[in-house]
């Protein structure tokens, strides 16, 4: 029942407003969007220098390298997911709003994926060329990263929500989140491997989709509960 | 009995270092955890007793001082 | 049902009932582990393939079982705490985490030691060992998160949420790691999963597993009792209880 002084419309309006607000805010602070991408490129540059420039060797380890580096880049951006809103108090406003918190949290995670996971996925093929990734696996690489990074954003947001109230939560956040990332990494890197070997990739992508579905069912509630703990505690 | 003698038992058919290391580590954990649980319980009770004594003493001393105040 | 749950949630009632239950679990734990240990070490026949190094199974498998069960128990306690606000459940969850991490470590250690005679190396990225390692990191995460908060209530609730998220992920992690392992090393020699263990090998293992579970229950009861005294130290019944002694 809408009370006086509240905007009409309900959940969809609130979600749309949250989406627009977060998109505008992040696009204004461009460095926050660009830094994970630069980090991704830098880490990928380190490997040929650290291991060997031999294209054959690089080609065999490229799927795993690209996936691990993208995963770390996504992890790096997580700490800022709720931090700014926590510090300026708008997270508290979000909690006080009459709209369901899980839905609003989903909107924030969607923006995070749109400006972190998706760009990483689009950038990965370029870095794949530099690692001599065999032809025929580029589309699968981008697709698996796009699909997998959505799960990464959802799972990571739980950790970010749990640690947002802590002054030095950065290292703790990676400790909490990285073990939970392992299934996504296995099937994401596995999809690229399968594409290189010429095996079917639809099974891998289907499992990545299933992981995303499970994450979408459980994560919003966990994120909402964690945000409440961090704010009220 | 799977072994003929005590020395054969200790030698574990040449696998002694591995078998005894694994069993030793497990025994150390079990004993350590059990000992820690006991020590923790004793420490908690000791601290609670000390606090109870301290509070009792405080109550008594305040009572004594108020009595003195009445006497004057 | 509800009355029972609330009665069970009362620390005072739990303190009284656990005092009577705990000795039985200690006796069962010591007896079962001693009998199972001696049986497994001295009386069970050696394995035709691995010889006597196979006896490590009698500590490795119970520790691995317990490591996984404790995480589930911890998450269940966290769920009870979050849903019914029963503080007792949180106290139990708090004391379970370090024991679970210890069990995971011992399972990893004995697995690594076992690896030397069977694989010829201290570490192999075997499915079982890898998922154990991930479980260890999950435990460390829960313990670290609980320690990071200043207020006890936030710490309890955060640790509960993380334990529940972890327990949903454990089967997913387990199956994906197994899948990953079979993909990369097809048909290698697996240490524990093999057909038809004879009775005289299998029975001591059962005794050890039961003994480890009794040990876990006994330690959890004992440490939860200490935790009750610590957290309820200003309650009247605790004062009276402590004051009774010398």
From TrEMBL, chain A:
GO biological process: cytochrome c biosynthetic process; cytochrome complex assembly
InterPro entries per record: Cyt_c_biogenesis_CcmB, Cyt_c_CcmB_bac
Pfam families assigned: CcmB
Locations listed in the record: Cell inner membrane
A GO term from the CC aspect: plasma membrane
Presence of keyword GTP-binding: no
Keywords attached to this entry: Cell inner membrane, Cell membrane, Cytochrome c-type biogenesis, Membrane, Transmembrane, Transmembrane helix, Transport
Gene Ontology terms for molecular function: heme transmembrane transporter activity
Family of the protein in this entry: Belongs to the CcmB/CycW/HelB family.
PANTHER family hit by this protein: CYTOCHROME C BIOGENESIS B-RELATED, HEME EXPORTER PROTEIN B
Protein name in UniProt: Heme exporter protein B
Gene source species: Halomonas beimenensis
Name of the encoding gene: ccmB
TrEMBL record, chain B:
UniProt feature coiled coil, ranges: none
Source organism, top-level taxon: Bacteria
Keywords: Cell inner membrane, Cell membrane, Cytochrome c-type biogenesis, Membrane, Transmembrane, Transmembrane helix, Transport
Major subcellular site: membrane
UniProt feature, compositional bias: Basic and acidic residues: 57-72
Mode of membrane association: Single-pass membrane protein
Pfam family, one: CcmD
Residues passing through the membrane, by range: 20-37
InterPro entries cross-referenced by the UniProt entry: Haem_export_protD_CcmD, Heme_exporter_D
Intracellular or extracellular location(s): Cell inner membrane
Region (Disordered) residue spans: 51-72
A single BP term in Gene Ontology: cytochrome complex assembly
A cellular-component GO term for this protein: plasma membrane
Function field: Required for the export of heme to the periplasm for the biogenesis of c-type cytochromes.
Membership in a protein family: Belongs to the CcmD/CycX/HelD family.
Name of the protein in question: Heme exporter protein D
Organism of origin: Halomonas beimenensis
Lineage of the species this protein comes from: Bacteria, Pseudomonadati, Pseudomonadota, Gammaproteobacteria, Oceanospirillales
From TrEMBL, chain C:
Gene: ccmC
Keywords annotated in UniProt: Cell inner membrane, Cell membrane, Cytochrome c-type biogenesis, Lyase, Membrane, Transmembrane, Transmembrane helix, Transport
A GO MF term: lyase activity
Family: Belongs to the CcmC/CycZ/HelC family.
Protein name from the UniProt record: Heme exporter protein C
Cellular localisation: Cell inner membrane; Membrane
Organism whose genome encodes this protein: Halomonas beimenensis
A UniProt-annotated Pfam family: Cytochrom_C_asm
Transmembrane stretches, start-end: 21-44, 56-84, 91-117, 129-149, 161-181, 201-221
Main function: Required for the export of heme to the periplasm for the biogenesis of c-type cytochromes.
Superkingdom: Bacteria
Membrane topology, as annotated: Multi-pass membrane protein
Family annotation (InterPro entries): Cyt_c_assembly (IPR002541), Cyt_c_biogenesis_CcmC (IPR003557), Cyt_c_biogenesis_CcsA/CcmC (IPR045062)
Record GO cellular component, one term: plasma membrane
């Amino acid at each position: 029942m809408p009370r006086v002084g509240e905007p009409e419309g309900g959940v969809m309006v609130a979600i749309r407003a949250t989406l627009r607000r977060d998109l505008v805010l992040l696009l204004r602070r461009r460095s926050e969007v660009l830094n994970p991408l630069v980090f991704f490129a830098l880490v990928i540059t380190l490997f040929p220098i650290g291991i060997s420039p031999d294209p054959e060797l690089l080609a065999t380890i490229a799927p795993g390298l690209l996936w691990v580096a993208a995963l770390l880049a996504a992890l790096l951006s997580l700490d800022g997911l709720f931090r700014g809103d926590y510090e300026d108090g708008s997270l508290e406003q979000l909690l006080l709003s009459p709209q369901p918190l899980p839905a609003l949290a989903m909107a924030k995670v969607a923006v995070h994926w749109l400006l972190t996971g998706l760009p990483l996925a689009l950038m990965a093929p370029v870095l794949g060329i530099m690692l001599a990734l065999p032809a025929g696996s580029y589309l699968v690489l981008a697709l698996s990263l796009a699909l997998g990074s959505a799960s990464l954003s959802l799972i990571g947001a739980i950790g970010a929500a749990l640690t947002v109230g802590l002054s030095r939560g950065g290292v703790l956040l990676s400790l909490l989140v990285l073990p939970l990332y392992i299934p996504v990494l296995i099937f994401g890197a596995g999809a690229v491997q399968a594409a290189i070997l010429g095996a079917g990739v639809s099974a891998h992508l289907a499992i990545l989709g299933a992981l995303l579905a499970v994450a979408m069912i459980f994560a919003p509630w966990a994120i909402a509960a964690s945000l409440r703990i961090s704010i009220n505690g | 009995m799977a072994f003929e003698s005590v020395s054969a038992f200790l030698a574990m058919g040449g696998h002694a270092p591995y078998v005894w290391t694994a069993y030793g580590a497990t025994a150390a954990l079990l004993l350590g955890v059990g000992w820690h649980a006991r020590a923790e319980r004793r420490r908690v009770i000791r601290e609670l007793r000390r606090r109870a004594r301290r509070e009792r003493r405080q109550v008594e001393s305040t009572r004594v001082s108020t009595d003195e105040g009445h006497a004057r | 049902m509800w009355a029972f749950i609330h009665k069970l949630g009362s620390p005072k009632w739990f303190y009284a009932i656990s005092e009577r239950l705990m000795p039985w679990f200690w006796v069962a734990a010591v007896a079962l582990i001693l009998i199972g240990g001696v049986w497994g070490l001295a009386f069970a026949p050696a394995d035709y393939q691995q010889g006597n190094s196979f006896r490590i199974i009698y500590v490795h498998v119970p520790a691995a079982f317990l490591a996984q069960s404790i995480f589930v128990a911890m998450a269940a306690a966290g769920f009870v705490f979050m849903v019914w606000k029963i503080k007792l459940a949180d106290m139990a969850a708090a004391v379970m985490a370090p024991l679970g991490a210890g069990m995971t470590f011992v399972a990893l250690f004995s697995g690594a030691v076992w690896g030397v005679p069977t694989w010829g190396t201290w570490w192999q990225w075997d499915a079982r060992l890898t998922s154990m390692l991930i479980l260890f990191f999950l435990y460390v995460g829960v313990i670290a998160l609980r320690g990071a908060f200043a207020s006890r209530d936030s710490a309890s609730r955060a640790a509960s949420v993380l334990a529940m998220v972890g327990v949903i992920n454990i089967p997913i992690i387990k199956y994906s790691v197994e899948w990953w392992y079979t993909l990369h090393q097809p048909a290698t020699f697996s240490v524990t999963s093999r057909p038809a263990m004879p009775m005289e090998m299998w029975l001591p293992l059962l005794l050890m597993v039961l003994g480890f579970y009794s040990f876990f229950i006994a330690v959890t009861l004992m440490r939860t009792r200490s935790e009750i005294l610590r957290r309820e130290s200003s309650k009247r019944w605790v004062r009276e209880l402590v004051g009774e002694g010398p």
